[in-house]
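Case study B.
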Amino acid sequence: DAKTTQPPSMDCAEGRAANLPCNHSTISGNEYVYWYRQIHSQGPQYIIHGLKNNETNEMASLIITEDRKSSTLILPHATLRDTAVYYCIVTRGVLVQGAQKLVFGQGTRLTINP
Amino acid sequence: DAGITQSPRHKVTETGTPVTLRCHQTENHRYMYWYRQDPGHGLRLIHYSYGVKDTDKGEVSDGYSVSRSKTEDFLLTLESATSSQTSVYFCAISDSSDYEQYFGPGTRLTVT
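Model:
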């Protein structure tokens, strides 16, 4: 699985867009980019994933560069409840019988300030 | 939210005692996973299951065993708990290798 690099921490004002970068320069052609977040003491929560194209859902947008070596997660209107650790995971790691391998790094601690 | 629960949510036990953690799902998902989370290490995969009675090891499986006798239940057993197994344990489920994993609320285990 490709290694990812994320800033350890970021701050964002409430109501503004939060843009979280992730570098994955060794990504291979069949590896997906996943984003999860973990709010304090809770289990990780899936946000979004993509392969090549930009993706959007009700939570966020994922922008993947054309060369796929980096991506940005965008929370369009951050709220205090978005304060969490955000994990960028690059994987096509398939285990036995199609089980999925996720490798969590240290992530980015995003703090939304009022 | 995916129907996934873990029990107990908190447990304190002594070194050398056996401990079983339970993960229960109501989603009928095929895959189930056990992770542990420790400061400085992120989440690490312990064991996973790809069907009833079908399990395999993850990256940190030493000292742990698992069982899955029903689709909905995945048990993690520490045969003889050690202080190094003090951690927060998360269960996750998924329906496909390309789909997201849904995580449970976690079990905080302290081994004294």
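Chain B touches chain A through 26 residues (CB under 8 Å). The remaining cases will be described in the next quarterly update.
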